[in-house]
Design a protein that fits this description.
By secondary structure, the chain is mostly helical. Helices cover 65% and strands 2% of the residues. It is built from nine helices and two strands. The protein has helices at 2-21, 25-38, 43-55, 59-72, 77-89, 93-105, 110-113, 118-129, 146-154; strands at residues 164-165, 168-169. The longest helix has 20 residues, at 2-21.
């Protein structure tokens, strides 16, 4: 039964990603929730749910899902990094800085990321060095609606930190 749950969980997480890419937020959330119900002890399921919540501007729920993922497996630098982004969006600079430090403590490789993810590294560096509540470039501005959020994320590179973990999909 455990193998079946693992396979079903993988399918639900794949559906969540597919739905997110199509802008079908509620369907993505439903699929991610199903994955956590099928495999409540799988950190990657909680990471997927946190990612879906973050994209849907449900930052409080995203923070809870990332916390659950980190409770199961603390050694996930990318989840710490995502938690830092969420905490920053919530306006909690100390929690954001703590999460970003967790990313570094658990091996987030800044040097390897410099060429591919400079925007993420820039956010990490600014959060670590200051308590500025919001940073971004001209094309990445704070959003307040799902449509605005989706449009902003469509401009991100395919391998952005929200979606990949060591080359593997987070969702």
């Amino acid at each position: 039964m455990r193998e079946r749950n693992h396979q079903t969980t993988h399918v639900e997480r794949a559906f969540a990603r597919l739905y997110m890419k199509q802008g079908l937020y509620q369907e993505a959330e439903d699929a991610a929730v199903r994955a956590t119900l099928l495999s409540p002890d799988a950190a990657e399921c909680w990471t997927s749910l946190g990612t879906v919540y973050a994209w849907g501007l449900k930052q409080d729920l995203a923070a809870q899902a990332f916390d659950k993922s980190l409770e199961i497996n603390q050694e996930q630098p990318r989840v710490h990094l995502s938690q830092g982004h969420v905490q920053k969006a919530l306006g909690d600079a100390p929690a954001s800085i703590s999460a970003y430090r967790g990313a570094l403590d658990y091996g987030y490789d800044i040097v390897a990321s410099l060429g591919r993810r400079t925007r993420g590294i820039g956010m990490l560096a600014l959060a670590m060095l200051s308590t500025i509540p919001a940073v971004g470039s001209e094309d990445q501005t704070p959003t307040s609606t799902w449509a605005e959020n989706r449009a902003q994320h469509l401009r991100l590179p395919v391998d952005d930190i929200w979606w990949t973990l060591n080359g593997e999909d987070m969702l």
